[in-house]
Design brief:
2 copies of one chain form a homodimer. Chain A is of the alpha/beta class and 273 residues long. Chain A has 2 domains: 8-46 and 190-272, Rossmann fold (3-Layer(aba) Sandwich); 87-186, Rossmann fold (3-Layer(aba) Sandwich), CATH 3.40.50.1000. Helix content of chain A is 37%, strand content 21%. Chain A has 11 helices and 15 strands. Chain A has helices at 25-36, 52-61, 74-85, 98-106, 134-145, 169-180, 193-201, 217-227, 241-245, 260-265, 269-272, and strands at 8-11, 18-19, 22-23, 40-45, 71-73, 91-95, 111-113, 123-126, 149-152, 158-161, 164-167, 185-186, 210-214, 230-234, 255-257. In chain A, the strands form 4 sheets. In chain A, strands 5-4-1-13-14-15 form a 6-stranded parallel sheet. In chain A, strands 7-6-8-9-12 form a 5-stranded parallel sheet, sandwiched between helices. In chain A, strands 2-3 form a two-stranded antiparallel sheet. The longest helix of chain A is centred in the first third of the chain and has 12 residues, at 25-36. The radius of gyration of chain A is 19 Å and the shape is globular.
């Protein structure tokens, strides 16, 4: 597959550029190649807890030419979504960590509640929250029952940490969804609300001009297919080559490789799938 | 419909016999009629938080002839289920309130953990828990990842209280289910694991000899239909007559009425559906 008409590459971070806190050196090389081809490179992660600034520093430190505006987290995209949709004085109840609060504050939202609850509430935003408890669940339910809109930063069921796999934002979202009997608007992958905001920011109307490269079938690949853009899967993260082989033809990515460099490198990559 | 061959009536409590803390007088009359017909009457509630003793007292106080062995709560049935399936020395992690702990202790289970977590864990039991938090969610996930069996007392999404509707055990179960990627064995209605235990206790093999009378389509009616027993719906609780009219024919209950007395009373009840 030629990347000639591709204008924007959207890269997942965990499993693609870094693994835990360890850089994947071939990814840094791959990013250089994409840029040499004149392709814009941005980074999209479902992780709602980490500030963009820290991610930009992290990637800068391992040799990626990057600015903070290249980083899209699900909490940043949630704030961007709200910025497009709501006035700055809306009252927001947050089930989430400071990453979400910080991004909303950056966009000028002032009426934010996370530990306490003061109705009326216009929006309930749910993401990863290691301080989640029954009280917050009840607050979120009450607000949604009273008409607040329900937004989820992401629905990842689990959250990989250095010390193992813990529950992810998706398990908290499911609790709120069940208690409130309402489905959220989901910003992160595999939904495409957030991706569309990125395309808008780059003024791209044809999704075929975009390639989404990630390491997870259930988030990255599905999001890319839904958006109708090109897709790439690397085996440097969660998904193995074997899992890819089991997929139906229509779900196969356009490109795959051991890592980003390998994915971009050979001219035989289509045969690998 | 004749009740001649019915040997056992299983009555939901909330919405059928009491509403909040208020007795439904016609229910007390209805229970007398059932007993006069020589039908055994027992009580089944998905609520896992209230001790059976208190429920027996509550019903006794409003004039129901009752003993504690007539009361089946989802936490009692969970303990009964475990008693049939497991040794007394199994290690159990509980996401739930004292009702569950109490019933398990009554059956002789000793290795119970609810605020702390000491692996190995053989069973994770999840029910309504107003002290639910992320730590407990993580413990439950870790235990299930390590091979513990996952049991849910009930999956009611919400929990009606005197002060309004709060999240129910089902919302907590969903969080654990999502984080652990495992489906629980569900004891309460609409599943029939618990109902089957009641039938066993009464040595009933033909479900047609049982009538399940409740006020909720999504728990009582579905459980009764799944078990293949007779079903009755009263309008003294959640479900309205209009909702019943909207049901497909195969899902209609055998009997219905404003309350238990009304349900048993007229000879025109089949025309009401």
């Amino acid at each position: 597959m030629e990347l000639n008409n591709v204008k924007l590459a959207i890269l997942d971070i965990d499993g693609v550029v870094i693994k835990g806190r360890t850089p994947i050196p071939e990814a840094v090389e791959g990013i250089k190649i994409l840029k040499e081809k004149g392709i814009n490179v941005v980074y999209l992660t479902n992780n709602s807890t980490r500030p963009r600034k820290r991610l930009a520093e992290l990637l800068g430190d391992i040799g990626v030419d990057i600015s903070i505006s290249d980083i899209f987290t699900s909490s940043y995209l949630t704030a961007l979504y709200l910025d497009r949709e709501a006035d700055k004085d809306v009252r927001i109840f947050i089930v989430g960590e400071e990453g979400i609060v910080f991004e909303l504050e950056e966009f000028g939202f002032k009426n934010l509640f996370w530990s306490n609850y003061e109705p009326p509430i216009d929006y309930v935003i749910v993401g990863m929250d290691r301080n989640f408890n029954f009280q917050k669940l009840t607050y979120a339910q009450q607000a949604i029952f009273s008409g607040a809109r329900f937004i989820a930063t992401n629905i990842d069921p689990t959250f990989p940490t250095e010390n193992g796999i813990i529950p992810g934002g998706g398990s908290i979202v499911k609790a709120v969804e069940t208690a409130s009997k309402k489905q959220p608007v989901v910003i992160g992958k595999p939904e495409i609300v957030g991706l569309k905001l990125i395309l808008t920011q780059f003024d791209i109307r044809d999704p075929e001009e975009v390639i989404l490269i990630g390491d997870r079938i259930e988030t990255d690949l599905i999001a890319g297919k839904r958006l109708g853009c090109k897709t790439g899967i690397v085996f440097s993260g969660i998904t193995s080559k074997e899992e890819l082989e089991d997929l139906e033809v229509s779900w196969k990515p356009d490109l795959c490789g051991e890592n980003l460099l390998d994915l971009l490198g050979g001219d035989d990559y289509e045969d690998r799938i």
